[in-house]
Amino acid sequence: MASRTGDLVSPFQPAHQLDLDALLRYASVNVSDFPRSPSKFTISQFGHGQSNPTFLMEVGSGAAVKRYVLRKKPAGKLLESAHAVDREFQVASL
Q1: Which of 76, 80, 56, 53 is nearest to 66 (CA)?
Q2: At residue 88, does pLDDT exceed 60?
Q3: CA 58 – CA 69 distance, rounded (Å)
Q4: pTM score, two decimals?
Q5: Are 71 and 52 in contact (CB under 8 A)?
């Protein structure tokens, strides 16, 4: 079992690419305490969570680095047995 988060992530899979500029703009406006002009912004993909791709965002401002987890719906038609990301958001935000 991996003991560090870095051991669990890898570069993006081609099917799961994100518009990083749009993501950064959105997070800067909508995520509490998200740095407005980060000096570091990296994103990698967890090797698990493939029914709903899961990403690690590392955002730096000066010496401080914050980590965020992002999940998204997979491309294409969602299988009935797959987790509904919108439902997960509702549960997580309660």
Answers
A1: 56
A2: yes
A3: 9
A4: 0.69
A5: yes
